[in-house]
Specification:
heterodimer, A: 303 residues, alpha/beta, Rossmann fold, Alpha-Beta Plaits, 2 domains, nine-stranded mixed beta sheet, 11 strands, B: Rossmann fold, two-stranded antiparallel ribbon, 26% strand
Chain lengths: 303, 304
């Protein structure tokens, strides 16, 4: 199976729009696509493709330290070992003689538990999120929902990928489109690992260029080829020229340039609202057809 | 404005965040810093989006200083190790395994908490500093943001590293040292640990969104996070079309004030594309961001 991830480094460059539209075009041409939304902190692909949830399962999280103020004697041994500044005293200390834990700072390492001489601290397991299987009109989809504030986004992405692989295998699908998370950190690495191609979606802005090159460096670490789609290409002639030069210098293939096109930008929103409509015959849409044809050809030659 | 700053004990920390990427956090954070500085408030702008830090592309420090961000990584002295397994038991992250008669540390899983080192009874574990990123800081040219001035602090994760929250915390520590009246935290997108490390302990949370079903969906997630953290929330609607949207209805219903609206205008995108400041380049820029600064102060004051 061919796994293609749409990624960007920077957010908001058009990853979800491109994932949704190229997958639709291919599916309409007779190639069903398995889908995985790996932005578990803000999953938008299911909205853009009107996916209907079929099942969800909890994703177990790590633990957080909980302190019993009635047992705590306020010695502060726990605070000495905590490297995340999660343990401190507050204005009630002189009344309660107890330390308090900031759950937003606690990383669940448990170092404070053996440090406490009075067994006042225990570790409590949390639920980090959910993995959701869904059915879009064009194929099966798996996505994740991280509970706000949880720190296991990378592991949740890995689980989304695992279940999406299983679903694709079950349906004997040949291609999987992955909507990647922004950034180059833990969730981005989990999403990129083991894919066959990174489609770098960028825009001719100073930040779009900067973040694309960070993504390219990351993909090279994993020896995954990168091809680029330049979105909103006519936003800045100077920016586009510089970016194309940079892309050529890096030896990357430029799949297509998509002009700034409000008709295209509105498609995901219209899909999300369940509107029936014909694809616009605009330069932006034509460029997206180009991307879709390029991807289709590449999948065929690889398959 | 001076009054609102006084009532806040002279210090104010504003986190600019969003669930969805690309809604305009950097646009808002950079221009807000300039607006505040021009009204006389010395500001530190902290780029906490360590995966994709872009603030310095718009507000470049004149002569930046750089410091490495290091984490303590456990290393094993195999001669001293008795293979008792106490370190493996102590590790909550599965970062220590015993394979082929050897204790192995997996750096990408390690949270550098030190639990293993303290659990070791044979003195075989120690820690060495390992680089995961860097923090860069400096003042932008005085004429851009007079009279208050803006210092920009950037947290930058090394490519291939996963310790985004560590780099965020290091950037915030550096900003604390600068001791400015106003600290603006340009936060990573999302609702996970990196975003939490940036938003934690902020006085005001400014959520940037766009009036689409996606913007609304992701806004709701960040509001949930902000409310759990007990931080007062205000919203900036970016790419506002002037047509009432579900985002406004939601804010209205939830009692969340809309602090500013930035017009859906190709000119805004063009100024941003070239690395310019919208507050200067767009005829409505000053109104959007000076207005936002006033609204942020009012929101902070309300909460005091």
């Amino acid at each position: 199976m061919q796994r293609i991830i749409f990624a960007s480094g920077k957010g908001g460059t058009g990853k979800t729009t491109l994932t949704a539209l190229t997958a639709r075009l291919l599916a309409e041409g007779g190639t069903p696509i398995a889908l995985a939304d790996c932005d578990v902190e803000a999953a938008n692909l299911p909205i853009a493709l009107g996916a209907q949830e079929t099942s969800r399962e909890p994703f177990a999280g790590g633990s957080k330290a909980v302190l019993d103020p009635d047992v705590c004697r306020g010695c502060g041994a726990c605070a000495l070992v905590c490297r995340f500044d999660a343990l401190s005293t507050d204005e009630n200390y002189y009344r309660t003689h107890a330390y308090v834990i900031d759950p937003w700072a606690c990383e669940g390492c448990g170092a404070c538990v053996p440090a406490c001489l009075f067994d006042a601290i225990t570790m409590v397991q949390s639920q980090a999120g959910e993995v959701i299987s869904a059915e879009a009109s064009i194929g099966p989809m798996v996505y994740g929902r991280l509970a706000p504030g949880e720190d296991l986004s990378g592991k949740l992405v890995t689980e989304v990928r695992r279940q999406a692989d299983a679903l694709a295998a079950e349906r004997s699908l040949e291609a999987m489109w992955i909507d990647g998370p922004p950034g180059v950190g833990c969730p981005a690495i989990a999403a990129i690992t083991g894919t066959d191609l990174v489609v770098g979606v960028t825009e001719p802005t100073v930040s779009g260029e900067h973040d694309l090159m960070r993504l390219v460096t990351l993909a090279r670490r994993f020896k995954i080829p990168v091809a680029v789609v330049l979105n909103k290409a006519d936003l800045s002639a100077e920016g586009a020229r510089r970016l194309k030069e940079h892309i050529a210098d890096e030896g990357l293939e430029l799949i297509a340039e998509i002009p700034y096109d409000t008709a295209v930008a509105q498609i995901p929103e219209r899909l999300a609202r369940g509107e029936q409509f014909a694809y616009p015959e605009t330069p932006g849409m034509n460029a997206i057809r180009e991307v879709s044809a390029w991807l289709s050809k590449r999948s065929d030659s690889a398959g | 404005m001076t009054n609102s700053m006084q009532s806040l004990n002279g210090r104010l920390t504003v986190a600019v965040a969003s669930g969805k990427g690309g809604t305009g956090k950097t646009l808002v954070a950079t221009n807000l810093a300039v607006a505040a500085a021009r009204s006389g408030t010395p500001a530190a702008l902290v780029d906490c989006d360590a995966d994709a830090p872009n603030d310095a592309l718009f507000l470049a420090p004149a002569s930046p200083q750089v410091r490495e961000v290091m984490v303590p990584l456990p290393v094993v002295d195999e001669d001293a190790c008795t293979l008792c397994g106490a370190c493996r038991t102590a590790c909550s992250y599965g970062a220590i395994r015993i394979l082929g008669g050897k204790v192995m540390v997996f750096p990408e899983l390690c949270h550098n908490c030190g639990a293993c080192v303290r659990a070791c009874r044979s003195g075989a574990l120690s820690e060495v500093p390992v680089r995961v990123g860097e923090v860069e800081w400096g003042s932008v040219a005085a004429d851009i943001a007079a009279p208050g001035g803006v210092d920009v602090v950037t947290g930058r994760l090394d490519i291939g590293e996963v310790k985004t929250p560590t780099v965020v915390r290091a950037a915030r520590k550096q900003a604390e040292v600068l001791h400015k009246t106003l600290t603006i935290l340009d936060s990573p997108p999302g609702v996970a640990c990196a975003a939490v490390a940036s938003i934690r302990d902020a006085d005001v949370l400014v959520l940037v969104t766009e009036p689409t079903p996606f913007g609304l969906h992701d806004l709701e997630l960040t509001v949930e996070l902000g409310r759990e953290m007990g931080i007062p929330i205000g919203v900036v609607i970016n790419r506002d079309t002037g047509v009432p949207s579900e985002v406004e209805a939601y804010c209205d219903r939830s009692g969340i004030p809309i602090l500013s609206r930035i017009l859906f205008d190709r000119r805004v995108a063009e100024i941003y594309a070239s690395g310019g400041l919208v507050i200067d380049g767009h005829p409505d820029g000053d109104e959007w961001f000076t207005g936002l600064w006033r609204a942020v102060c009012a929101l902070a004051e309300e909460d005091v």
